Amino acid sequence: MFNDFKLMDDRPIYIQLKDYLKKKITNGQLLAHQKLPSTRELSKLLSISRNTVLTAYADLEQEGFIFAVKGKGHFVDAVETAKSPAIHLDWTQKTNTTTQLAEALDLMKHGVRRTKEMISFNSIAPDEALFDVENVKRAFLQRMAIEGHIVLNYGYAKGYKPLIDYLLHYMEMKGVDIANKDMLITNGFTEGLDILLSSLQKNSGRILCENPTHHSALKLFKLHGYEVQGIDMEDDGMAIDALDQALSEHTFDLAYLIPSYHNPTGIVTSSEKRMALMRRLSEQQIPIIEDGFNEELRYSGSHLAPLATFAGQGNQVIYVSSFSKILFPGLRVGWILADKALIHSLESVKRARTIHSSTLDQALLYQYLHDGYFEKYLKKVKAAYKKKYECTVYYCKHYLPYKRLAGDGGLHLFIELEDALDARKLLKLCLQKGVSFFPGDVFYTDNKGKNTLRLGFSRLKEEEIALGIQTIGHILKHEYGG
Amino acid sequence: MFNDFKLMDDRPIYIQLKDYLKKKITNGQLLAHQKLPSTRELSKLLSISRNTVLTAYADLEQEGFIFAVKGKGHFVDAVETAKSPAIHLDWTQKTNTTTQLAEALDLMKHGVRRTKEMISFNSIAPDEALFDVENVKRAFLQRMAIEGHIVLNYGYAKGYKPLIDYLLHYMEMKGVDIANKDMLITNGFTEGLDILLSSLQKNSGRILCENPTHHSALKLFKLHGYEVQGIDMEDDGMAIDALDQALSEHTFDLAYLIPSYHNPTGIVTSSEKRMALMRRLSEQQIPIIEDGFNEELRYSGSHLAPLATFAGQGNQVIYVSSFSKILFPGLRVGWILADKALIHSLESVKRARTIHSSTLDQALLYQYLHDGYFEKYLKKVKAAYKKKYECTVYYCKHYLPYKRLAGDGGLHLFIELEDALDARKLLKLCLQKGVSFFPGDVFYTDNKGKNTLRLGFSRLKEEEIALGIQTIGHILKHEYGG
């Protein structure tokens, strides 16, 4: 009867024995009131220690799967296995249109599965070879020693207090006036944006942003039913005349801007343009969601203040960011810095939706920042990414016949090919040669950008960057259309 | 000029010096092109090592706050401090009605602030004194040693694969047929429920549940615009005749059920009632959201299978749970076990909203489960909570003049006072004596339950339980209405 017991993995043996017996009980192979072998017999039969069997029986008894009769041994309990008639619902017909749209816009479901050998310029995630796992461990152990019990229990919807205080100070060091501001910790940038879009009143239902723009943001605008108006990008940021035109034609509920290392173009909005944007949007009283994306990854040049700094004592800027592209995206921590009254409202939305973000993630990040590991790490990764950036620019300039190349730093470049070329057709050819990239059209608000592509270089080695770009260049010159 | 430099905290000194200088630059106390003291001068002036100043200057240069001129020293860079005209928006007027409702229903904002000395029966969070922080550390270090780099980088929207596999097996051990099922990892139970309510089609717009029910679930139903129909509870679960009545009068999009240690009543739905519920809801093809809340906290009696087990090969049950009330709620990990096609859709919603849940939380939980710490811990906490449960029952029976007492185990009891009594009035009197509890009316779907209260005992010591209940009893007998 028990000769089919096998150790499946490296979990404790008594747990595997429990599982084995539970399964026999729940699937009816062992019947209610059936007598089990004595612990001595079973230990002999299965060649495991009697203690293991004792522990397993004690647990099963405690969990109500078996019962003991003094002097008689152990018996199977009357575990309910009765099944109601099985019914089958067609769940594909039960999701709403927003969910169907989320699926349609889910690039992960419609993209190319990349193989290990492929040179992929798709990702702009950090290079995990750079992670300083040792200092993460140190920060964890340090925080657990200080208040492990607090870290593991429920926290506050707004976030972990020491982290909030640290990040408020951090933003103040960027020149942001934090009086009358407050902060909500979120599961990364994306949850921050989603909570905002869920919470703010829709009037015109129109949102203004750069064109192209961050795909996840664009997806959320659409899922929240916004009409999106993109403004074309120039080399130093949004085209101000096109902005003026749009502002004269329509009213907008919100503007969404990525002033530094704009995704996908990599453009840094100049100081003058930041000022011009702020002036125009302030005049129209349009709230600004500023995406702090990659702001930390400045490789050279003067410090550029975020729009939140330009706003001074004003409260029209909602700054949303995370360190995900620099530090560890596996820790889901982002933040919204905004007017105190707004944060107070958002706190209730956050609580209703997820109670709060992982206290462990927040506490670990706090300790890592506090102990100065972040500063050291940032220097290391900036140096590494700068080299990759320069390498990518070099190979693009020498091997890619492009019309326009954008990207002042960050973790990616944006390429505009000649108008008649189609990046998706190019991608098909490249995939056959083991090279992949992101076709740029998915970033556009107006179905344009068929001739554009994004090259993320953060996770590639220099020789892969070289070979990958040479391959794309070769195909463009010799095989495309041929 | 630099004599106001003070060390503020225990962060590295060079970082504090950087912050000090940054602040002077961004607020205009140091002007563009102004010369900074030499590293030697500043180190002497501030009595800190010259290396500290060197590191700070190098960093500030790298970040674009200052620049160096060979042979001449360091100068302040032209950091943008220009401010656009400050505008002030009234954010209280810019949130939508759902957000305003979330604030109105946010118990944390309207509840009583408890003081440290107070005996509070409000919480049903785990007792942090029981946490085995040491094994959490072990599991963390073990997982980081195995794949620290993977744990810290982006993961999958569905969740961390080893954890999903573990939990699928775990559910199978409860007798659930997992063929054609799949799992989505969420930020605790609450996010799971919110994602479901956001994703499923609304037809009748009506949802069926126990009355009273879990407050956070009730809040989410309202925020998602559902009309909620509660069915009264008997000692062994929902009143079946009332259910039949409701089913004959209305159609429902969903049923939400908490079969074990129901919140707030603590009632365990009997095997017979589980079968009866399944049969009726299956007949009407009504999908069931089963809340696995506290299912693991069975102190005695036979094992009771979840509704998901009763469903057999059927796919109408969506099982949502977490270990938050047993293990560590600071780790935000919950799961949805449901039909494969449904999970495939929900995955896109999860990705759009938060990319994925913390990989660190998931990986740590996985290792903790895998290494058998969970089994050991569960035994320990069950023993501890069982004692508190019995203690609470004892004192209620001896000191509280109640009409009905419910709660077969778990972390709380539910008290129904005589009909004419008002638990909120009682609470006011109790607060004056330093005792607090949850008035039960917030759990009701129909504004009833004015005479009910929930007593959470998980975080109290036995002497606090005794004193607290004696106090409530004394007030009821001698002071209420007096």
Automatic annotation (TrEMBL), chains A, B:
PROSITE patterns: HTH_GNTR. Gene3D superfamilies: Aspartate Aminotransferase, domain 1 (3.90.1150.10), Type I PLP-dependent aspartate aminotransferase-like (Major domain) (3.40.640.10), Winged helix-like DNA-binding domain superfamily/Winged helix DNA-binding domain (1.10.10.10). It holds the Pfam family GntR. It comes from Pullulanibacillus camelliae. Keywords: Aminotransferase, DNA-binding, Pyridoxal phosphate, Transcription, Transcription regulation, Transferase. Residues 11-79 form the HTH gntR-type domain. Its cofactor is pyridoxal 5'-phosphate. SMART domains: HTH_GNTR. In the C-terminal section; belongs to the class-I pyridoxal-phosphate-dependent aminotransferase family. This is GntR family transcriptional regulator. It comes from the Bacteria. One of its GO terms (molecular function) is pyridoxal phosphate binding. InterPro entries: Aminotransferase_I/II_large, HTH_trans_reg/aminotransferase, PyrdxlP-dep_Trfase, PyrdxlP-dep_Trfase_major, PyrdxlP-dep_Trfase_small, Tscrpt_reg_HTH_GntR, WH-like_DNA-bd_sf, WH_DNA-bd_sf.
